[in-house]
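Regression test attached.
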Amino acid sequence: MENLQNANPTILNLSDLPTRKPTASTKPKSALTSLAPSYANDPFAPSSVPELVSDDSEDDDSVVESIDAQEIYDLVSTMCDPEHPITLGELAVVNLDHITVQDDPEELTGLITLEFTPTITHCHLATVIGLGLVVRLQQALPPRFRIDVRCREGTHTTDRQLNKQLADKERVMSALENETLMGLVGKMIETCK
Amino acid sequence: MKEAALYMHHAEKDPLEAKKIAHDTAKRIESRELKLLELVQSLGEYLTDDDTTVRAKAIGYLSAVLGELGPKSLSRQQVPVITQFLSDRLEDETGLKEVATGLTSLTKMNFFGNAEATRIMAALLGVDLPKHPPTTRFAVLTLIDALMSGNRDALKAMGDKFVTGLADLVGGEKDPRNLMILFSVMKVILVEFDIVRHTELMFDIVYCYFPITFRPPPDDPYGITAQDLKNRLRECIASTHYFAGQVFPSLIEKLDSTSQNVKMDVLQTMAACALSYGPTTMSAQSSQLWDAVKFEVLNSAGEDDLANEALQTLKAIATCLSKGLTTVPPANTPLARYLKAIVKECLELLKEPQQKQAKPAGQILATVATASAPACAFIIQSTLPALLLIYSDAGIIAKQRALMQCLNRFFESAIAVYGSWTDVSAAPGIENPLEEHREKLFGIYSQALMGSNKEETSFRLTAMRGLGKLCDIRRFLADNEIGMVVQYLDEIALDREEKDEVRDEALQNLRKISKFKSSLIMQITFPAFMAQLPDSEQESKEENKPYLGTLEALAKLSLERPVFEVLLTRLLNKLEVVLSAGSGPEYPRAILATILHVLQQRSQSTLEDTKAYYNRLIPPLLTKTVVPLVAGGSAVLADDSVLDVTGRLVRIITHELDAENQEMVMRSVFELFVNHSPSNIITENAGIVASTFRPLDKDASKEAAGSTVILTSILAASRREISLPVERVPSFLAHIIELAQTPKSAAHRLSLLRLIALVINKWTTTADSVAVKEQSQALLSSISNMEQLRILFWIATALLLRGDKYGSEVMLHLVELLSHAELGATAARGFAVLLGHDEFLNAENFAVVRLLYKQRVFSQCVPQIIDMFKKADSQTKPNLLTALSNILRSVPSTIITASLPSLLPLLLQSIELHDADVKAATISTLEITILENADVVKEHVAGVITRLLKAACDRGEEGNTPAVRKSALRCLRAFPGKLRGELLLPYKRTVLKQLQLALDDPKRTVRKEAVDTRVKWWALGEPDE
Amino acid sequence: MPLQKLASVSAHTDRIWQCAPHPTLPLLATASGDKSSRIISLLTYNTLSTIDGGHKRSIRSVAWKPNTRGESVLASGSFDATAGIWRRYEDDSGAATGGEYNDEEDEEWRFAVVLDGHESEIKSVAWSAGGSFLATCSRDKSVWVWEELDDDNFETVAVMQEHTQDVKCVTWHPEEILLASASYDDTIRLYREDLDDWVCCTLLEGHESTVWCITFEPLTTPNYDAKRGARLASCSDDKTVRIWTRVGQSGVGAGQGAGAPPSILRGAPVEENWTCSAILPKAHDRSIYSISWSPRTGRIASCGGDGKIVIYEEDKTSAPGAMEVDGDAKAEQGSKAWKIVAELKGAHGVYEINNVAWSKRYDKDKRGEDDEIIVSVGDDGNVNIWAVE
């Protein structure tokens, strides 16, 4: 056992992590309501929908579901901590309240800010975590978003330096060319659901 | 003595021939024609030959002969002589293999005794075995093994000489096959022989092989796996407690290994040793083992295999230390000492139940508690008071919940030790240690579930699960207590304020309880639920009493036979009430659907039950349905939507009847529908019905016609041995086909089409088939509308299913229709019917279904479609592609892939069609192809990727539906890992860049797919891949 | 004053960090994350050739060597901690036609020398005005000066370790042997050769975050004042652009113009005094990555993470003379002189813009000899060409 930075962190219960309220479409259909009359689906009729797409009840593009804080949270909360097989959500490294999304349809670009909280104030992996979050979000979000990942003020002994680095595009990009770092980040992202 | 010469001549070139020669010689010896001694003497010259191979072959001959001899064929005098003779050959080590083989054969002889065994062993000990090749060593080890099983006492008698000698003999063996024998020999020695003075030596011989890192060669002829070796070695190591002193320190050391496999092996070996070494030995080891093994659990997330293995090891120690204990272990016992340390440390960690190590700590306690009743008692007694204290001081709910989860594990341990209600095994002697805390626990959990804020979902869920487990522990909670739990659960399940997950959990727990306390469910839950059911749709609306949820819940709880009985009675009464209140179709349909649902969920009922259900359900129901049609009254049961459910009920119940009863049902239904004579399916007004009910007349009312589904259902459910009670099947069929051309409703149409298919598939004789042919020809020649088209497709399906050649003919006509200006598009969609699954027309419902019928359809249609496509005009092409995708959709991919090269071009085109269904279907065909054999698409990678990217990214007015975009993304995701990196890397940047568009999709679910797909592609050729 | 897009060249599949117009020929060189550099014709705006295989990681910076005869020399700085020198023969006809190469001439770009020494990513490379010195700076906090003794033979003449952090940018004074560097430590430093030793002669403090880019005022700008000497412009993560002016005499040949013999006075003080003489009007709401100072119009262009291109112009009349007032008053007055004359949002769509550069205009629609264009490069991998209407 390599000695861990923080062997015994506090863990949030999965069921307490913020999730999107299930919409009608995601709710499991009740056995009775879903019992459609066998004559209802006529394969000869043009409108018939084959099974393999029928799961998609929200087939209407006019209803736009815009990217919100919860969506950002869902993107990062299942990443796992570089030293524990536990997710950043469970470790409360990422929190829904510390994510903001500015996405004004009038504006060309949007802004996403995410403040993370290391499990301990001297965690030497904070940089890796920050980098991992940046990489994940850059991969998962359309380019019109500017992404500011910061370590929450006062939650790390060196949060100033840390944040200046994370804000430095040039440094982040050159980190992305560093194989060992990317190895770690890859591991963090593997667990994403 | 020419055999010898001959044998030696063939020995290498022609082993079989050689064997035969030996066999013949053996026969001659057995028939006393030849004396064994003569044979031996005859070998004399060779045995002194300078050429070692000659000497070896000569002995080989002797051994071969011995091998062919039956156990009785050597006399009391011969055996020792030959033994002596061969044993002497051992000194001259040429032909050791042959000698050993010969001796092994000797051991099978009836007169082979301990004296010979001792002599051989003594001689063997002189041999320098390690210098010989593996096959020779194998022969020798086999010999030793034989002696060990046949003359163990002789070897024991040899004492130290044997034990130490053997050590030198087999030291340093490496060959896996030989090790398998060696290990089993060693195990016997370790267990039975007096080795106390040689523990060190024995330990060295055995333990030097740990851990096994053997990886079998690809062409291993003996198929020995690393696991086989591990298991045998483990048995050796575990076989004598004398090893304890050396084994455990060394195992603990090896636990630091970085290899998961080694750690696994170590933990399993520890467990094996713990279980066999016995309490006295283990009491000395337990504490250091605890100190070493605990980290494997505490530092893991508690889920992985290693952690589980470690838990099992800790449990094994407790199990061992529990031996002979029948009471709560007194403080001075080894078990108590072992558990005390564990309890102390785990309790400490549980003081902060939310921290990472609390969960593993809880798991340790819970798992070790399952070791034995004493262990369970000790752990629970020494932890529960403290835990309950922590709980009451916890203050914050999250902390309490974390602690409850730990307690819930304890309940599971209690179930493991004391069993659940459904168990029959004897309960342990010690009283369940939870007993003294029963009221407190029951109080806490009830309070947590019913007394806390509804918003505290996870907290209450945990409490509910806990209560569920408490109920499950055998003879723990009293019926009145379980009854209270049932009331809680009822309350929650019926409360529409509660979250769905909470209500579902409540139902699941009620369901569990219904398995061992169904009486409580019937006494408490049913009245409560039934009371929630409105008496009419009107009431349902006005008093806001939605019935679906309640019915749903009832269905979930009624899988047990007695409960279902009650459900049936209550729902049928309710149906009466609802009908008399003058209802629309929805509510009655829902009630019937509930019964149907339970029947579908239930495992096969007995014939007796089924008969009972039939009598209670079908005739009354049909009567209520039909009578109003002729005598007036609410015809709501004759509504298509209700009849649909009634039909399914009829089918599912009739299906479970035996032939004899099915025949009766068949007769009565024909009386009702065809012969118009009083039918015992109708329980009242049978006369009026017989005289006026004409569902199969052209001018029947829509409702009457609609009831045809009943007839269809019964034909579907019946075995085909039961003949149709009609004079001529063809004319009956003709009549139905006639009707089917002017259906009165969608439901009516489907009933008739199915009826046609059922009759053709199950009841037409070869004689009838001519008629069938004529009728179909007539339709084909004059086809002018969709109804006829439908009929033809169903006829074709029925015929194809039973492998009828004519079916293919019809089908090919239908393929040609794809270019038909008006009917083409419909025909294209019709191909979904041809191969799709039908609830009524299938093997399970006694239809004739030839194997490979899908293959046949595929191989007959697809080529024709492909070359029609070559010359097709722009408006036919979509039809062909639609038909194609409808076929591909329901054909096993294994069949498709074969002809994929010729199909791919078409598939790629149909991705660009407008029809969303076709697109989606095609894309999923592609996905399956890529997943199952990607190589087919190799040459088309570029084309496929570009089209998929387009499908994934273009949306909006003319664009693709979210469903299509999603499946396109999923399909793109299938590439990485299925095709070699270098084939894909050229597209990596493009794919990643293109998919940025999909990241901005208006639909969240699409964005999600896009993200996952990009991650896969991004990882292509990454360092960590 | 609108910006009109003349062309958009999608030159790279990955982000373009920087671009450099050739001092005399209608050529543009790019530096990209795809480890390659491309040469683009400013006559036709077509890609002429690709320079790759020289660097193992992103190319961060490129610079044309000035005053070369018959050949072009390009220096490249990469995240792989090395700098490269590339050569290609130019026949003057090629120059006149904008070097429309024929295919096989691609190979004519020769990777002549690798300069290694830096411990980590090189962030910027720059040739001195005369072309005899090459400066490089790196994440390793150091600034190196290389001297080309003869063809392909470079010698390290100085390593300055003055900065406490990552050095982002180096640039040379248009006539003096005066080198400037900007850093992640929020400061700018100036260096001179003092006897045979290079020393830091000024520390410019004022920016509140990383200084991304610095550039000296070209001698040919309308507002150039020989007495005052070339000014220095800088842009920063603090979203400001600052102008710095030398005050008082410098130790070595200040204000004496080109070719002045360096003072031989022993111990003559090399320290110089520069002050912030202006802060340009705030226009960017994210980090400003690059600025460029037009030698023709004296306008300054800036770009940054907000995807904007902004152009500022200095009103000569209201601009302060060399030594009239000084201190904050001067700075304030100086600032007033600068006005925003153009501001373009989304110049590279939704993407960030990493670099802008003024260049002489060569294409067929050019309006006279001193017509000019702005070249911008961004994360979209595109090179956009703009005319100022």
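Expected vs. actual: identical. Helices of chain A lie at 51-54, 69-77, 126-140, 159-167, 169-176, 179-190.
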